[in-house]
Amino acid sequence: MKKTKYFASRRETPWDSTLRDNVQEFIRNEYLDDYYEKHPALSESNEANLLNAFVPVCCPNCGSLKFTRKGFTSNGIQRYCCKDCGKRFNILTGTLLDNHKISISEWIEFCLNLFRHDSFSSTSANNKNSTTTTAYWTKKLFLLLEDYTEGIVLTGNVYIDETYYNEAASNRTVRNGKELRGISKNKYCIAMGFDGEKVYAFLEGMAKPTRERTRDAFKNHIARGSHLIHDREKSHKVLVEELELSEERYNAREIEKLPDKKNPLAPINRQCFMLKDFLNAHPGFNRKDLQGYLNIFCFMQNPPHDKLKKVEMLLRAIVYSQKTLKYRDAWK
């Protein structure tokens, strides 16, 4: 029988159930004061004022537009009652924050830490919560942003390239006792695009790109008639042909040693570097979630660039998106 892994509460200290001297009492009290400041009771936070400023669009249970106010929850959040189905709900019913136990202020800190490329362990330590909580919230962002890149269309001068990310060590292909080297089936191929303002990233598959995969990755994300700036990857030719693009092509080997100021592909190289830095902050992640991380990365890199405005966008999207993810379903 598989043993359940136990994660100690961030609230615990070594002196919770023992006699304490003055030094231990001081350290414990300071630690717990900081903990409770980061974990206020929902009834003691300003969440009610925030959430009561939102008005439901419809009943989340049946979609009816006929509903009326019906008191408040124990945390002061406005409750509604549907006139058609008779069910009660509040602004968070059926959303990713439905029945949340941790304050929204802590969720905001989680987002800001993620935008800074902090690791799960660092983020959970800063927020004084479990690493599984951080992973769970990340999966919620995957769901919220699952369609984010679909609306990205690059225009004007468009830089494109491919970058590669290693398969997890436990899943790598081995032949004759050795792992495949180079751009092989042990590397994920990620299509990257950048027009000076917007970033687009898409998981093409494994190993080198093909004409078909390149077409599928970019055909709806580069405006017809744009100017393509790229290396001499053969699969890019299909984009020039089908989207009627003008182009600049550079030999990657000839320019790779140039300083960034002189490298004509520096803008897209920079985005590839930032993506690797973001992914490497979470090296043990399940590669099935790779596109989810790419969606988050694009959201991070694209306008608006102020991190607090990004948090605002996410919060508004959560309130008005009928998406939910139960904890037990996140690990299936």
TrEMBL record:
Positions of the ISXO2-like transposase domain: 154-302
Pfam families: DDE_Tnp_IS1595
Database matches in InterPro entries: Tnp_ISXO2-like
Source organism of this protein record: Sharpea porci
Protein name in UniProt: IS1 family transposase
